[in-house]
Specification:
about 600 residues; eight-stranded mixed sheet; binds adenosine-5'-diphosphate; binds magnesium ion
Length: about 600
Amino acid sequence: MSKIQVLSEHLTNMIAAGEVVERPAGIVKECVENSIDAGARVIDIEAFQGGIEKLIITDDGSGMDHEDAQMAFMRHATSKMHREEDLFNIQTMGFRGEALPSIASVAKVEMQTNNGEQSTLIRYHYGELVTQEPCNCPLGTKIEISGLFLKTPARFKHLKSISYEFSVIADLINKMALSHPDIRFTLSHDGRIVFQTSGNGDLKEILFQMYGKEVASNAVSFQGHNDDFKISGLAVQPKISRATKYFMFITMNSRLIRSVPIQKAILEAYGHYMPSNRFPIVVLDVKTDAQLVDVNVHPNKWEIRLSKQNELLELIQKTLREALSASLRTVKAAPKQTPVFEQQKISFPYPVKEEKPVFVKKEEALDPILESFSDYEKPVIKNEIQEEIVSYSEKANEGYEFFNHLTLIGQLKDSYILCENEEGLVIIDQHAAQERYHYEQLLEKLNQPVIATQPLMVPLVLNVSANVLSLVDSINEKIASFGLSFEVFGNDRLIVREIPLWFQDVHQEDFFYDLVDFFVQNLNVNMESLRKHVIATMACHSSIRFHRKLTRDEMEQVIEDLRKCRQPYHCPHGRPTVITMSDKDLRKEFERG
Ligand code: ADP
Ligand code: MG
């Protein structure tokens, strides 16, 4: 007898179940996707004991007739794809026709469905059809799954605690709700409702449900498009951040997806405002022609392959950057048109000078700078430099007016500069303010080709571990464009012999150690993030410390420097540099009505 046999349908379903229904949340995902495909406006998810004991998913979608209800449990049976071409133009969440048979092979499933004409009850027990009969049920479909994996102990053992399994379900429903704000979702656990959306299409409301008022009120709406993609969503301002990247919710044609390149593009856009180990909260939906997206990459449909990916990444970066920089400018500034007679009452500690554009560069002058960047990075860098040119040579500084209307009061705790303006009390964080100023200064310098370097009188010696020495060539290759280079010295040391002229103000030793550490931790760093890191680190190592007594002149200099900044209200890490306590706030605090 031959050894090779074709697997039974039941076995094939169980094997497929390994990929599709690893845990209760996998079942929830498949059933909710089916409800969405059926046009449901209301979807209820009830989980018992983390979904291990029972799951009930009820929808008000189109339902099925007798025949379809039966067919739905056949392997590779689907109403969503008919021809070969359909595979390259998928408009629905499902298309593989394997979820229901897979689930039914490893659990007890009871389905009631009504399409407005026929109502059907079907029961499967671990792959076996046990009931199929007409029934009475409302329009739509209700699927109840119990006894999951009881006949497959190896898989059952794989399940974790009840609270863990439920948390995965809850996380999934949060994301589903964000990707379908016009569907009303209700999630309950052991009979208690834990999450509910209204289905009125308001994304901010869902964010509010998930993370509260602070996050929702700091969420900025954005929209953008190019020839192939339309993007929209919410970007939470960088002053609120998270320690992991799981708060970037990405959907492609309303399908939840995981995409490292898209996450990176989002991070790049936040780069100026966020420390390197923090991550933003972003909800991003991409709409595109289904033909550009291949969703048939993995059975659980989380991964996709995308044509024209680079165009999309550029669009995301540009749109988010614009949305963020616009929102960060909205700090309340003094009114622009102050009547002359009132102006006399306000002191102007800083002379209003006409600033010459400091950064004027012709298009062709960008070429040598761009040379060191990869093709993918070039347009991004170019765009950034051009933005810089525009903001220096056309526009007045954003903070200009605001900082002209400050009267210095003094310093608090050797750390904060206190001022007064028409609105009330203005508090400046001296270190954050200096970081912002130096950051912008360095940004400008680093955007210019390094022409002049100068030898150090005493070369700088850095003690490093042996693994760093093996990286020196690749580090040098990347930092050459900044006019920097390391030389290997003995078994455990690096030498720096030359620095760019403008580099003198930076605390050099700290800076170089930091740079080496950065490379060790981010071996495959791209130029753009390296550039941001280098600049932010330099800015930090060249700024006035948080605890330092300042003279009046120094305080005025800090304010004057901030006034020159393009984005004076946030340090490079996204923390505020200035806060205002209005007279109104103070009155309220002192209960003056
Ligand atoms: P797929 O979604 O990939 O087509 P499934 O096994 O998930 O495969 O579902 C099989 C078929 O059952 C679907 O194509 C659909 O026609 C039908 N179906 C499943 N769930 C529902 C539902 N909640 N409402 C209406 N039809 C459903
Ligand atoms: Mg499906």
